[in-house]
Amino acid sequence: MDNSICQVYEDEIQSLEEEIKLLAEKYEDNQQESTFFSDEEILMSIKSFQREFQGQSKGHESPSDLKAQLESLETDLSFLMKFTGIQFTSHSKKTVEKTTNRTVQKHRLSGNCHSLSFQLEFQLLEMQNKENVSAVITDLSIIMESGEDSDVSKFVSSTEEQGNLLTFFRSLSSYAEWYEHRRCTFLHFK
After folding, report:
1. Contact 87, 169 (CB under 8 A)
2. CB 75 within 8 A of CB 100
3. Cα torsion for 34, 39, 41, 43, to the nearest 10°?
4. Of the candidates 42, 45, 44, which has an alpha carbon nearest to the alpha carbon of residue 34?
5. What does the longest C-alpha to C-alpha distance in the chain come to?
6. Chain segment 53-71, per-residue pLDDT in tens
7. In this predicted model, what pLDDT tens digit does every residue of 24-43 receive, in sequence order?
8. The pTM is what?
């Protein structure tokens, strides 16, 4: 009888030791995850969360206000897509590097403008100092169906070198609109 009681206690001790081991591993994993963020980043996140929570509890924006804002943004987006002809079909963002004053994110965009499809891949380098934040586009890569048009290839190459997305989208909008007109005209004569 003593052996059976001892065995029960030993089993219980072993079970508790395994539980302690699992909890210790979990604790180490949590510690490793938290070391990726500096104390300043954690405090800023906490303060941001508190502001959001206080804003929600005070009821600054009701659900109807948010719904109206969303409808307004959707209307604006629809107008811009009709106006420019640019429609994004997918976007992905991945943070490559993050420090206290520097963030590097890799973006992938794909979409079409009128009947031309395009894909963009670039890195966005954001540097923050005390007064402001500056952003620079690096490693811009553009894939576009241009057919045999060498002018489009030259334009894409120069845009990739300059890293100027605004110029690319402005030019793409104009070019794609006239490309569509030419295509329809040639189809009419066939």
Report:
1. no
2. no
3. 110
4. 42
5. 102
6. 665 545 556 778 888 888 8
7. 887 777 665 555 555 666 66
8. 0.56
